[in-house]
């Protein structure tokens, strides 16, 4: 069985199909889907969606793209929401959080500073409650690593990893796993495919980032957690290994990256 460690199942692209998509994914072998929040306004949405889907769990956080409109009150609300959610077995991590230095507006000096401040505060929340983080990293690998070294949470996942081998090693030393999904299914994505093929197997987890980052066979269509088994098969092929062995390794790695998943999956 497979674990999708990053899927925005609440996204508007799914309309009212989210529960049905999760059900079909489960029938196709996806035992668990982790749904990260992106802003204070969808904290309750992801929690409620996970409560209604037997194969779903959720994370809470403020995505860097939503930082411009976020306030310090949102950080206070996040800490309070996390404290309340600790009693919910379907709450598993802090995310999606991080730094985005790709979108021009987010690269302005004041906004870069605000992003970094929000990232650090959310890392502190993760550290204080002993939770892993799901990080958004776009043109910001070294800056994200700097903050992770200074405010160290208990591991997590570098979502949609697209850094260097040296940066990958730095994440691994910090106890992080590296997320791979649809991007590695494109033959032209030489660096990502090389990373997926050559990085230590114990460091890798699978994700869809649905509805985004569609694999090559459905691009540019809407991605879905239903695609995860085929994405996993693509990774097995890249690594020239048995698919069942890859599936078991990815399962073990996901539980190591997000320990609270284990109670859900063995119950």
How does this model look, in words?
By secondary structure, this protein is of the alpha/beta class. Helix content is 43%, strand content 16%. It has a single domain, classed as TIM Barrel (Alpha-Beta Barrel), CATH 3.20.20.140. An eight-stranded parallel beta sheet has the order 1-2-3-4-5-6-7-8. Strand 1 (2-4), helix 1 and strand 2 form a beta-alpha-beta unit. The longest helix is centred in the middle third of the chain and has 21 residues, at 109-129.
Summarize this entry quickly.
With 267 residues, the chain is an alpha/beta fold. 43% of the residues lie in helices and 16% in strands.
List keywords for this structure.
8-stranded parallel beta sheet; 10 helices; 8 strands; 267 residues; 16% strand; alpha/beta; single chain; 43% helix; TIM Barrel
